[in-house]
Amino acid sequence: MIKKVTVLLLLSLVISTSAFAAAPTAQSVQASVDSMWVMIAAFLVFFMHAGFAMVETGFTRAKNALNILMKNFLTVSIAAVLYFLLGFGLMFGSTAGGIVGIDSFILSGREDIGFFLFQSVFAATCATIISGAVAERMKLKSYILLTIVMTGLIYPVVGHWVWGGGWISELGFVDFAGSTVVHLTGAVGALITVLFLGSRIGKYSKGKANAIPGHNIPLGALGVFILWFGWFGFNGGSSLAADPQLVPHVITTTLFSASAAILSSALYTLLRFKRVDPSLTLNGALGGLVGITAGCANVSLTGSLIIGLIAGVILVEAVTILDSKFKIDDPVGAIAVHGICGIWGTAAVGLFDVQNGLLYGGGASLLAAQTLGIAAVILWTTVTVGGFLFIVTRFSSIRVSREEELSGLDFTEHGSNAYELKDTVLESNAAPSPFGTDLVERLNSIGNGNVSNVDQRNTI
Amino acid sequence: MKKVEAIIRAEAFISLREALSHRGFGGLTVSEAAGCGKQKGKQGIFRGNKFEINLVPRVKVEMVVDDDQVEGIIGLIVDQCSTETIGDGKIFIYPVEEVVRIRTGERGKEAVL
């Protein structure tokens, strides 16, 4: 390390011109390297929004694709602006009794813009979790109102309690990168909103849950890979410094937990449904990532594998129970992934923390602190989101009309479809849509010995 | 004149098409069809929820031919499209009242040849 710093120092001495009056010191180089890492991590977390957008679009129907994309884009931008105006101050301003921050609004008196940037991309993540759970039926404007409240108030207060020097952090509660702060908060918000919203038309009939297959699982799979990639920044950047021991450890536990969760959820779906369920296995990867987020710096590599293995099984059970037993319609599994696995991940720190974990002989005090923290966050989010939606639903419905839902939110809320406009035939200057071109192309390709196209048709 | 309408397995279409053109039958209309018969559908599963696929995909081939050619075509289709398992499809024969070639206004037999 010292060697590297010296090399960098010497290099910068050569490069720097007289314009840079102060000679770089070991501290200033360290600060630059730290800042660089946090910036890279912020970009990675930002890119996770592409992952969320793709997972949510792919796991739902084609007629609602534009609506989901718009929700994701608007969430990112609302969070950035609002976190600057309000959220950052509430979260990281000087504490008022451990409850809420009271200064640093619009970054007044603050110079750590890098820290702000990293935190502001986090804030958007929390809100965007909701958009998947409420997909295909919530009004865009109601969703936007909720996003404003989530990123402007609900999330920053939780963040203050845990990361901003608030009362939960005083208990010794450990949540390194946000299993509870980001994921559980978002998931509880999602659950409460779904309870107000109800299930999609056709999801439940005669007391039975019906399958509503997503329209593009490969897109969803790409989204999961993007999220996984971004998660290395989400967890790794939460070190807030380019620590040469901590960062590789955090990234390895992140990789291990997701891998273990994929294996266990794939195997578990095979045992339970006699098939390896692709979309549940993809959710399993995310469940493993959420599960390790709290403890990624505090558990051993073996511990991260065990946390992931358990998260994968919990995820599959949670999706199934929420879906069939409690009839909570969550098209993308956000409540199970971020909520149930978030609870598991936070509690798992109490078990697997190498210093204070129950399984390492550290006693039950950390586990108790973790449990209390989880309960407090669930209570706060339930009360605030529930209260907000209770008031909003007195004035107007947060759900689109039946007709709008059936024809798809894309056309009714945004005026066009994601993939095609079926009625181009009606446009006077356009050639009539050649009905069956698809079939013609495929059958003609048969003559060239290309059999595969027809074969695919036969195996739905 | 008769119309021969055959619902066949999509994968059998290639060999049927070749056999037909080998015998000199050039004109046909193909469309995608979905249906059910004795063959049971499939059961799918998505996120733990089972769903039925009751209609199976097939290809529908339609040809209008002279009365004395019908038996030959039936033989050809059965020959090419039978796998001797449930789900091979059906052949329907209909009488055709009149045929008109739109380009020339020709009618009857001349219109299909």
Structure description:
The complex is a heterodimer of chains A (460) and B (113). Chain A is an all-alpha fold. Helices cover 68% and strands 2% of the residues of chain A. In chain A, helix 5 (140-162) packs antiparallel against helix 7 and helix 8 runs parallel beside helix 10 (278-293). The N and C termini of chain A lie far apart (57 Å). The longest helix of chain B has 12 residues, at 70-81. By secondary structure, chain B is of the alpha+beta class. In chain B, a hairpin with a 2-residue loop joins strand 3 and strand 4. Chain B is built from 3 helices and 6 strands. Chain B is elongated.
Describe this structure in a few short sentences.
Chain A has helices spanning 2-15, 26-58, 65-92, 113-133, 140-162, 167-170, 179-197, 217-236, 246-273, 278-293, 301-325, 334-352, 365-395, 402-407, 409-414, 437-447, 452-458; strands at residues 95-96, 100-101, 204-205, 208-209. Chain A is mainly α and 460 residues long.
* Tally of helical segments of chain B: 3
Helix content of chain B: 10-25%
The overall strand count of chain B is 6
* Average pLDDT reading of chain B: 91
Number of helices of chain A: 17
Secondary-structure class of chain B: alpha+beta
Q: Please give the share of residues in helix of chain A.
A: 55-70%
Topology at a glance:
The complex is a heterodimer of chains A (460) and B (113).
Chain A: H1 2-15, H2 26-58, H3 65-92, E1 95-96, E2 100-101, H4 113-133, H5 140-162, H6 167-170, H7 179-197, E3 204-205, E4 208-209, H8 217-236, H9 246-273, H10 278-293, H11 301-325, H12 334-352, H13 365-395, H14 402-407, H15 409-414, H16 437-447, H17 452-458
Helix pairs in contact in A: 2-3, 2-4, 2-8, 3-4, 3-5, 4-5, 4-7, 5-7, 5-13, 7-12, 7-13, 8-9, 8-10, 9-10, 9-11, 10-11, 10-12, 11-12, 12-13
Chain B: E1 2-8, H1 13-22, E2 29-35, E3 42-46, E4 49-53, E5 56-65, H2 70-81, E6 90-95, H3 109-112
Antiparallel strand pairs in B: 1-5, 1-6, 2-5, 3-4
